[in-house]
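Exercise 7b. Backbone tokens:
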């Protein structure tokens, strides 16, 4: 098997802000696209590295260099390849997720079967995806809500001193839509009860990562009072974090770039279920390749937030849908995505 990779810059339709990175508005981002070729068949994978988790394009490329040397000749031997990469690159979940996705895409294509089918899943169980509205000026937020009219579920980034005004702006444009919020660690135990009560007044369905990892005292009060379900994101990076989150959260948000791909995500889903937790699938800003890999698991999730490709102006791939919030698990073999022409 031959592994090659490229850096690809993709541009957002709108500049994007969240509570953790407010001084660092994102207008474009670079991802790594990996392709693994075997007898003329090519499998794709994507790495969307996160500096928050200590990853970079350069650190990901080191993983690819190593992976190129240990892929061997059997594309079906996915697990041994991934195990060897984990032994050497424990922190490089985004790059390992790309190898994991490319091997699954390749195997699906060699067998002529979509990955979701290999996993035994029912595509009709794919939940609707939310569409994310980032932190912005209130006029811009109102405009984004109007532009997001086709999406039935919105996920609102909060965690600033203006959260109530943000929710008011959202409700002016979308009075009845189901809303989820993500505070990205923007609140603390001192105000989380008050903030969660406020969110519920605006009809919010659940709250993602209200406080920083470890700041859990306030979360216990929110859950004891039954205010709103809480979902862990930054607190739940990899499979080892799932059980540690169980006493503090009602569910976890799994992202392939955080956890290291489809195999690890499956472990996390089963662990979460055994602990009675809800499962959400999320993403970074990434192309349809990365989104398609996560989407293969969507029938196992309660909630999905797989909109990274919908935020892009120049997604180089297509095939996974997302219009009106409907992610499509199609019948194409592998991950079901193809390169966009022109
Ligand atoms: Mg989040």
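Sequence design result:
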């Amino acid at each position: 098997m031959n592994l090659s990779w490229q850096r690809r810059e993709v541009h957002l339709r709108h500049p994007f802000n969240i509570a953790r990175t407010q001084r660092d508005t994102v207008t474009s981002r670079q991802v790594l696209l990996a392709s693994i070729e075997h007898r003329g068949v090519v499998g794709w994978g994507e790495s969307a590295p996160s500096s928050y988790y200590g990853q970079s394009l350069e650190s990901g490329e080191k993983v690819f260099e190593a992976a190129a040397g240990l892929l061997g000749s059997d594309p079906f031997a996915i697990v041994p390849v991934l195990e060897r990469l984990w032994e050497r690159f424990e922190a490089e979940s985004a790059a390992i997720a790309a190898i994991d996705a490319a091997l699954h895409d390749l195997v699906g294509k060699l067998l002529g079967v979509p990955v979701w089918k290999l996993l035994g899943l029912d595509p009709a169980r794919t939940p609707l995806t939310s569409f994310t509205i980032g932190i912005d000026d209130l006029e811009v937020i109102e405009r984004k809500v109007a532009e997001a009219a086709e999406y039935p579920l919105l996920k609102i980034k909060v965690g600033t001193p203006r959260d109530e005004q943000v929710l008011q702006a959202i409700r002016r444009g979308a009075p009845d839509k189901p809303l989820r919020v993500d505070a990205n660690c923007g609140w603390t135990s001192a105000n989380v009860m008050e903030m969660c009560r406020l969110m519920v007044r605006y009809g919010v369905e659940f709250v993602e990562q209200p406080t920083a990892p470890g700041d859990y005292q306030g979360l216990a009060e929110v859950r004891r009072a039954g205010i709103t379900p809480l979902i862990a994101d930054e607190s739940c990076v990899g499979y080892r974090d799932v059980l540690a989150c169980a006493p503090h959260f009602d569910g976890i948000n799994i992202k392939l770039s955080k956890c290291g791909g489809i195999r690890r995500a499956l472990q996390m889903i089963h662990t979460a279920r055994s602990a009675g937790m809800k499962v959400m699938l999320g993403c970074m800003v990434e192309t349809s390749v990365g989104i398609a890999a996560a989407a293969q698991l969507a029938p196992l999730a309660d909630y999905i937030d797989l909109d990274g490709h919908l935020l892009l102006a120049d997604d180089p791939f297509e095939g996974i849908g997302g219009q009106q919030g409907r992610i499509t698990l199609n019948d194409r073999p592998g991950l079901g995505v193809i390169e966009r022409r022109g």
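Instructor comment: The chain has a mean pLDDT of 96. The longest strand covers residues 2-16.
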